[in-house]
What does this fold into?
Amino acid sequence: MKTLKTVLHDARERRRAKKAAKKKTLKTILHYIKGYWKDTILTWLFVLLETVCEVLVVFFMQFLINDVNVSKASGIVNASAVDGIYLYSILIAILAVVGAVMGILSGFTSAKASAGFGKNLREAMYVQIQKYSFKNIDKFSTSSIITRTTTDVANVQNAFLQAIRAVIRAPFMMIFALIMCAVTDWRLAWIFLLIIPLVLIFLVIMARKVHPTFVRIFDTYDNLNEAVGEDVEGIRVVKSFDREDYEKKKFNGISDFIYKNFVGAEKILSWNGPIVNLAIYGSIIGLSYFGAQAIVNTHSSELSVGGLSTLITYVMLIMAALVWVSMVYVMIIIARNGAERIVEVIVEKPEIVSPQNALMAVPNGDVDFNHVSFSYVDDKKVLVDVDCHVKSGTMVGILGSTGSSKTTLVSLIARLYDPSEGSVCVGGHDVREYDLAVLRDAVAVVLQKNTLFTGTIRQNLLWGDASASDETILKACDLAQVTPFLKDMAQGLDTPIDEGGTNVSGGQKQRLCIARALLKNPKILILDDSTSACDTHTDALIREALQTERKGLTKFVIAQRVLSVRDCDVIWVMDHGKIVAMGSSDALIQSCPVYKELYESQLGGGDFDARN
It folds into this structure.
């Protein structure tokens, strides 16, 4: 059982860790104002001048009021008072115009600074995400990353927009106003010194209570975006299974949770307005009472009607500043969680990076798995002691049941993951010795469910080689069997591709992705069940073209169909993360019961040619 001393020590350590985390978040976030510090500082200058003008307008207003009262009380035209009226009127008008101009300029510069700040944050997150390994990406869901780069950045940007003005205006307005109050009648300034700390203490207490609620809300936004994304992406499946009501119920459950938490937060924040208004009216009542007594008792005070009017106006200015502070404070409370989530993405260190003095060329397509084991989590190996070697130009077929870790194995070649044990070598060197861009440029991967991007067919294919000529593109299209359906498209290579490639069939999409990979002119090509949507004839034509036209290219063909790997130079049969057998198709029929069973179940023991 923990002693009291231990409990107190743990509590202190938690507070220190929390403070350190806040400091780190603030330091990281502020770093991305770079390039916009000039606009930020100009905003502070303009707001400061605007504040000084407002305070001086109120200060000189008392003299204008007093001169008017003098002129009115005497019943005759008082030349001195009239001159004072003209003088203070002109002075007040000049200060008002200057203050308005400063306010407009501060609006321009603050908008530029905040927009640039938001741009920098989005860019920093996006650039960092591009550096992530698959393991890093697995840590953050897609919906969470989208929320962080949109909603969270917008909240932080809006809070910054208001804060850079409030951080100067509010404190300086209170300081200047208090100084002027003391100059006008220092014996009444105690009212402000009493009210202001009470309001600030209330704001701090409110922030502490409401912040955990906003943490829950924005974490739940990730789930909401995920639900919407899944529903839209899988809308055909939802409709085919008539699951619209289920999806609505799931969405409404998440939405109701956000609603209830927002209501709870707003209940706390709703105290903000009444408390500040209470402070304003309390100050006005106090000033009116004590000020009126001071005016009536002319023997003990020189406070004038204009002076009292000025003090009351200063109350309004100070409390308006407090209202603004409270509003900005609420925005900062909301943005604080967003800032923490943004920083999590920015400071996340990529699991896989290029080494120092990295190799900048891949000599050939040799691939060696040297006693490789791999785990996604520490306690369960999905690859177990894989030891096999492939010479450049070899076509390797990989066959196995779902979950046998076929995709995981080939993912190690492009260093999408690093092995937990052993090593993977390409071109005679450990993949960890290569520059990542160089290695991945030499290894082309085509997945079963690959992605086409919005644009044209040409623009999608040029991902493989941005400088490729039409002749080179069409040659790759011939090898990937794209040409037959490309001829039927009126616009040819300039045919538009809708978002996600929804205007082409699954087989056409796969062939376009193979053509795109071939344009990289890689040394290693990985086809991860990437002809599953093609008919067997087209599948055979693609493999035949690769064998005859790209003889020096090392090819890994992962498939569920025996026909897709039967003609490969060597076939690996995988089961539970192990290569249980390897050899030619004929040899495996004799030596591997698993392969023989698959062969006979799919081909019925026949020996027909898939190309016929």
User: Anything to note?
Assistant: The longest strand covers residues 367-377. The radius of gyration is 36 Å. Confidence is low (pLDDT under 50) at residues 607-612. Residues 367-603 form a domain with the Rossmann fold fold (CATH 3.40.50.300).
